[in-house]
Amino acid sequence: MPRFSIIVPSHGVAGRLSQALDSVLGQSFGDLQLIPVCDAPDAPAAEVAAGYAGRDSRVTPVHSPPSAGLSGARNTGMRAATGTYLLFLDGDDLLLPGALAALDARLTETAGVDVLYTGHERVPWWEGEPAYPAAPLLAGAPKVAFAPAERPALTGVQLPAWSAVYRRAFLTEHELVFPEGHFTDLGWGGLVTVAAGRIAVLRRSVVRHRLRRQGSRLNLPGPHQHTLLDQVEQVLVRAAGSGLPAERTGPLFDQLFSVVLKTASRPERLPAGHRAFFRRAARLYRRYRPAGHRVPGGSLGGQHRLLAAGAYTAFRALRGVNRAADGAVGRLPRPRPLRTRLRYLRDLRRPLDPGLAVYCAYWGRGYACNPAAIHAKARELAPHIRSVFLVEAGQEHAVPEDVEYAVIGSRRYWEVLARAKYLVNNANFAEGVVKRPGSVHLQTQHGTPLKTMGVDQSTYPVVAAQSGSFTKLLGRVDRWDFNLSSNRHSTQMWERAFPGSYEHLEYGYPRNDVYYTATAGDVARIRRELGVPEGSTAVLYAPTHRDHHTGFEPGLDLEAFCEAAGEDVVVLLRAHYFYDLGRSRTSDRIIDVTAHRSSEDVCLAADALVTDYSSIMFDYANLDRPIVVYADDWDVYRETRGVYFDLLAAPPGPVARTPEELAAVFRDGSYAGPQARALRAAFRERFCQFDDGRAAERVVRRVLLGEPPEAASPVIPLAERVPAPAAATLVRS
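Predicted structure:
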């Protein structure tokens, strides 16, 4: 029998679940059972949990349908638990280092307690300092185990379920389970408080609770707010039936109704039925008020008296101080100069144009990437929607002649942003852009994340220093209605790096459609346009940006590589777009394609790819052509930038650490040999899940035409897809 069973519900947090599980399995105290509770065997979180179970026998995944809610998930985990003590951990929280060892020591000191209440950190992980909300509740508690009557104000009502440890035999004896419905922590905490015979306290923080940016789902408006009273009534009924003395029921009563009054004072949480909520709360108050109960002082006492009297109208009047809304100046968008700013504000008051879509790629660098591919498909499937592409001044030439555009910062730019119903970007619109009710923002992304993104960059000082405010970043994320994904890995990492309320579209990347629709003629034409000599093997060299470098450093002597790799090898050099400064690095055997508008064209022209850690490898894998990873500084990159998985443990092809190793795999042909093909096949299975040549159509139909999700065309199985043909024979003698 393990000492601890840790139960981890995972609904809606698949992207961060691995961090929670790692925080448990990495504990110095290892006598544990870890129980991830997943929605279903084929759910995203179940894939994560199954991977852990395959590597560690202490992991026991179980399943609970989403309809059962948090309470159902926890109860399912409890039924599977075999440990002496139970802990609960939310799937996006962390068990702090040394937590289990500290718990074990404290439980040994206070042998036999039913409940051990613990401290916890509450932190906005993207930015801000941690708080320790349990500290005042636990302060002053006896150093030894004690009966609840000795500290009646210490109840589970004010602590979440994961801020305590429970003796499993105690829960079984009293048949304690999480009550159904919302506010289950409150009901659970109250029921445990009533039943517990001996408790103890560990003031040390055990869990790091990472706040959800949108706040607790329990604070959202809706009929679920009425279930708060169901939980309160269950606890009050159990307390009344247990014959608890008044000195214990009084604090429990006050704490329960503190939560009730908090909801009652916010009518916006109950857009319908606020009066009925108040009246039912008043009946419960009068029925279960303990004998000799003393009303609190101050404003809270006034609310108690009005609730006891059922004086709804007076309660609404007392409620309050009007919440200060942000002033008109504070709400004013930030375009400059002031005249443009005021015009933008005026345009925001005009109706949305349901037939207008605005597109932008790479902060205005031109007509490219997913936005361009969606725009092209929209002209075919939704010709009634007028489209405007946004470009920086000086980049107008990067937009095809037949595509309407607006220059960023111009009066027209702000006008179309204010009026457009649809806004499509592969990065983020400017901070001053307002998300209007009824508008639809689509974030297409522009790669598969190997390196850390979004708020995950906050723990890497070099990157964080260049990223600006993560709070402002997430304010821009709040504008997203849809977020595009090309594989399940991306879905989970976007959820983790950009927490928000958007809908994931696992449709593939529209820019990658061409890898399945281009013909041999297209490939030949592109190679001629780029100047690739006929009969040569074109190797695309695409290194990524390094945050610890101040400028572009090729990282490889390309002339020497060509000489060593073979006489027919030419290199297509594509530096990261940060370094597209208009300077060509072309020579006899090196063709600089950094400034070429379409990375898709460049990939189609290449017979093989050499990259370090660029996300281009995930897109290029769709072509099923050789990929070689040149990882000369992997350890430095991983430490300074942070990565989501070990690329060298699951590469898309051979890995070279030195220029000599890189040249050798081309010289001997192993870059395209059987082992390389096997690595590439596994890589494609994982990262080419949704790219099948029809992504743009799915996006246009779902976002611009409003078709339901179930109408989306199914993804063609990987084995049935036919990539565009390569120009050269890839197997070298």
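Summary: DSSP finds 28 helices and 21 strands in the chain.
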